[in-house]
Amino acid sequence: MSRQTEKLTDELYDYLLSVSLREPDVLRRLREETGKLEDGRMQISPDQGQFMAVLIELMGVRKVLEIGTFTGYSALVMALALPDDGHVLTCDVSRERTEMARKYWDESGVGRKINLRLGPAIETLEMLLDSGQAEAFDFVFIDADKTTLDSYYELSLRLVRPGGLIAVDNTLWHGKVIDPQAIDPDTEAIRAINAKLKVDQRVSLSVIPVGDGLALVRKR
Fold it and tell me: For residue 107, with 0-12 CB atoms within 10 Å meaning exposed, 13-18 middle and 19 or more buried, which class applies?
């Protein structure tokens, strides 16, 4: 029993991974290659990926919408957790980074489950709505540019089914959310979405300290 979440030292985090992480080799190699990139910090942690995979299995998810692909680790971990008839639609603007993703998706054997849409995500989401896909998705993962978070969230609420889940990444933002001197647009956008989620009666909410903070939002 503990009155608050245990603070993870590097050693305790390594132990956590050692007793729980079941990461296929293709995911490990993608994570390690991404970690060598200048912007490799943008990738989710492996324990967060495994947690989202368990959520997908628990919910019987078949249709996933991902906003922000990067090098494809999260898309791949979710695709691996889906049933044979499941698929991930993922949005990004970077051809270079998603080319790296495609290499690992194809190698994994589940690349056929992943549909990449290159271009501004707002345009893709609006196109999905215009094509009659409101409430068509079971699970949405938002991990893209922060200044557009509110728009991503509102569109995702229209695209996810009642009872479906939206996961919003980076809600703790490496601790900058509690730094009064951090007033950059990204930090302010994250503070704003956190405040909005706290009072949004359209959803149920839990923010958990996995990775860089993950808000789990269930549409009522």
Answer: middle
